[in-house]
Amino acid sequence: MSRPIESNVIASPLTTKFMSSFVLLTILAGLGVGVARVLISLYAVHLEATELQLGLISAAQNFGILIMALPIGVLVQRFGSLNIFCIGSVLGAVVYSLTPLKVGAWYLFAVTALVSFVLPMRFVSINTVFLSNLKRLGPARAGWFRGSHMMGYFLIAPALSVLLIEHFGYGGSFYVVSLLFLGTLLLAPWCFQRSTPQVTNRPHFQWRDIVAPLALIKTHASLRIVCILEFLSSVANNYFGFFIVVIAIQSFALSEPMAVMLLTVQGIVFVGSLFSMGGLAELMGYQKFYLIGLSLMATALLILALTKITLLMWPASVMFGLGLGMLHIANFMSFARVGEQTAMAKISPILALVGPSGGLLGGLIGAVFGAQVGLQNLFLPIGLVFIGLIILISKDQEFIQFLKPDVSEQSVKGQEL
Asked: Which InterPro entries does this UniProt record tie to the protein (predicted)?
């Protein structure tokens, strides 16, 4: 049985058509999910949802992802990225179109949870193709590719969401999200056509195929640390992304557009770092790069937790976006390195599982402790955890050795130059 091309690291040259199409697809895919995220957050506030409901709605965006990430990874290997991505896009469009049919916080929670079951079909497919091409892209262009997705998700989506609400209301805005999901179908064949599987005599699904990525986490020590970093950065990012708007409106009396601007500022810095800092990671070394990124995030989280001054929320958002971007670059290069050492087809579902797991915890933290502790105060323990990560990256010698470039890798780069 032959495997789809995305199961391994691709060695053939990247074509201009593939690169341009993939960038446009990732921008549009990120835009659809990003607009939906901001809409759900603002709509929940509009519905006067309680802290419990807000936290559950935030966490619901990851419920199905946790369940489906590993099975979808197997499906992508068997049926190819194109087929799985297209099915996920159609199903996502249908579910989002159901959102305006009934008004209520618990109904919004149910629809948000439902759509989370189909989202892995899209981003596992994209991540598999991305990771398979990452070695040839190199750190600088890898950040550029990843930044295109985050440009739609973090940068364009917040401002577009406010614009859509002003012109179409919440109901019409969710229909626009459905159209954005369907729009990706036009670009998908150009991006995934090189990944069509030539598979015959497919065996029945086996449980060990689904859980194989988890066994890899158990046996690969450096992968475990990268997963911890990705998990905790997702906790912080999801908590910030969902609750910063609520905190800004309720605790600092900012208007809705100004509250969303905090997300926009963070998104601009985050995406800018992805586009510009990949080469810096290679120059200074990934351990230093990790330490600087973690320090920026820890400082930002502590400021957000302790400040009573509205003005300080802006530099904290800038620091948070910059640190998050640095972690994003380093984590993706580390995941790809593990994939080269083991099996790339197992790394994509791990990435699809770990990030949303952190996102789920971020939402649950707000749901469980938001009312008693205060949503703003919860930035403090998250910030302290990042201080612990700084100590871990400074002391773990095996991980430090893993982050050093291979001699063979450096010689190949020298030949390319």
From this structure: MFS, MFS_dom, MFS_trans_sf, Sugar_transport-like
CA distance 50 to 149: 32
SS3 400: helix
Q: Give the DSSP per-residue string, 64-132.
A: HHHHHHHHHHHHHHHH-HHHHHHHHHHHHHHHHHTGGGS--HHHHHHHHHHHTTTHHHHHHHHHHHHHH
CB environment 68-97: b (16+ within 10 A), e (fewer): bbbebbbbbbbbbbbbbbbbbbbbbbebbb
Contact at 8 Å (CB) between 90 and 182?
yes
Return the SS3 of 61: coil
- Separation between Cα atoms, residue 179 and residue 183, nearest integer Å: 6
**Single-letter residue type at 337:** R
| Residue closest to 112 by CA, chosen among 183, 36, 181 | 36
Name the residue among 164, 161, 189, 222 with its Cα closest to residue 18: 189
User: What CATH architecture applies to the domain 16-192+208-407?
Assistant: Up-down Bundle (1.20)
Q: How far is CA 109 from CA 1, 91, 157, 360, in A?
A: 42, 18, 21, 13
Cβ–Cβ under 8 Å, residues 313 and 249: no
Rounded-to-integer distance, Cα 347 and Cα 76, Å:
12
The H or E element spanning position 206 is: none
Handedness of CA 117, 121, 126, 132 (dihedral sign): positive
Domain boundaries, the chain: 16-192+208-407
Q: Which amino acid is at 304?
A: L
Distance CA 339, CA 346 (A): 8
- Is the pTM higher than 0.70? The answer reads yes
Cβ atoms of 318 and 265 within 8 Å: the answer is yes
pLDDT digits (tens, 9 = 90+) for 345-394: 678 788 878 888 888 888 888 888 888 899 999 999 999 999 999 999 99
Q: Torsion over CA of 309, 315, 321 and 322, rounded to 10 degrees?
A: -150
φ/ψ of 62, rounded to 5, equals -120, -5
Query: Which pair of structure tokens corresponds to residue 105?
Result: 């916080």
pLDDT in tens, 265-323: 998 899 889 888 888 888 889 999 999 999 999 999 999 999 999 999 999 999 999 99
CA distances, 65 to each of 114, 196, 213, 244, 332 (Å): 10, 24, 15, 23, 19
